[in-house]
Amino acid sequence: MPKVSVIVPNFQHQDYLEKRLNSIEQQSFSDFEVILLDDASQDKSAQILQAYADKHPHWSFQPNLKNSGSPFRQWQKGLELAKGEFIWIAESDDIAHPDLLKELVKLLDQNPSAGIAYAQSMLIDENGKELNSYAENLGFIYKSDAWQKDFLKKGTEACRNWLFYHNPIPNASGALFRKAAIDKVGPPDLSMRLNGDWHFYAKILLQYDLAFKAEILNYFRVHAQTQRSQSIKRASVYRELIAINQLLRNGLKDATAEADAAMDEFANWWIGNLPYHSFNAENRKLNKEHYRIFKAYKNNLPWRIFLTYIISYLRDFLKWIGLLKPLKKLRSQIFPGKYWNQ
């Protein structure tokens, strides 16, 4: 029985696969099996994955003949096949430091109350260039230096302070999960396309603690093909955020103030992205539903929406004439800590 099951869900990532798989081969901790998955990619992913599976006796390749339509169906498939005590979902476009598994296994072994252990991530671009430590993003989002040092945090406190508002675990590739915790709370919600990870972590942390290693051990690739980068046009994203809020609200009965504050913030996100939603029947239907829900948390909602559309047209004009980036940089300097400087 392996200590760790490594699940590699892949779709159309032939350009990144070899670096990802090499970083798994090079782990200093070696007691693991690898489950390679492919969701009916049309590139050369399947050939690459099969070649690596053929090299290693404890690696297997389990391709889909038809695309599943959801990244979390791949997670579920891997979890059903996994035999290890711990689970690493190693996304196919990311890269791991050689000591990632060693350090996270140690954290879970030393802290039996923890259901998730994760390490700091470095954001990298399509070419592997380092952008910034995700500690900068977390510090900006939460106005906290909590991620500057290792910690073990009560899971319910992590939910109350962090998960109501954002997902503090930016990337599954940087996390290790206790299989017993997953078996207890159940697999990811397959109806979610973008925030199924956030919802999944919340389910676990309502019952288990959260351990963190401040050392950068995960390299999280951000590029135009990621689900997150394409989410701005989807009204369905907000249905998922509302579901996460309801899950946490139900699990923390005394956190009504935090739950309501998070809904107010989600309303701000929804208003800000409305001008960029695709104008189709599904989005129109969902946005009517979201309007009905968010008006309970946000005053003067029609006026705020109108003003947002005016601002979006102005943004598009400034972008067209090349002034948007310098003006955003100036704004971040005038109001330090209020606006993200990238």
Structure description:
The relative contact order is 0.11. The protein has 2 domains: 4-228, Spore Coat Polysaccharide Biosynthesis Protein SpsA, Chain A (Alpha-Beta Complex); 231-334, no CATH class. The protein has helices at residues 14-25, 45-55, 71-81, 100-110, 134-142, 155-163, 179-185, 196-205, 236-251, 256-273, 281-294, 301-320, 324-334, and strands at 4-10, 32-39, 59-64, 86-89, 95-96, 114-124, 130-133, 151-153, 175-178, 209-221. It has 13 helices and 10 strands. The chain is globular. Helix 2 (45-55) links the parallel strand 2 and strand 3. It starts with a strand and ends in an 8-residue tail after the last helix. Strands 1, 2, 3, 4, 5, 6, 7, 8, 9 and 10 form a 10-stranded mixed beta sheet that branches. It is of the alpha/beta class and 342 residues long.
Task: Briefly summarize what is shown.
The chain is an alpha/beta fold. The protein is 46% helix and 18% strand.
Topology:
Elements: E1 4-10, H1 14-25, E2 32-39, H2 45-55, E3 59-64, H3 71-81, E4 86-89, E5 95-96, H4 100-110, E6 114-124, E7 130-133, H5 134-142, E8 151-153, H6 155-163, E9 175-178, H7 179-185, H8 196-205, E10 209-221, H9 236-251, H10 256-273, H11 281-294, H12 301-320, H13 324-334
Parallel strand pairs: 1-2, 1-4, 2-3, 6-10
Antiparallel strand pairs: 4-9, 5-10, 6-7, 6-9, 8-10
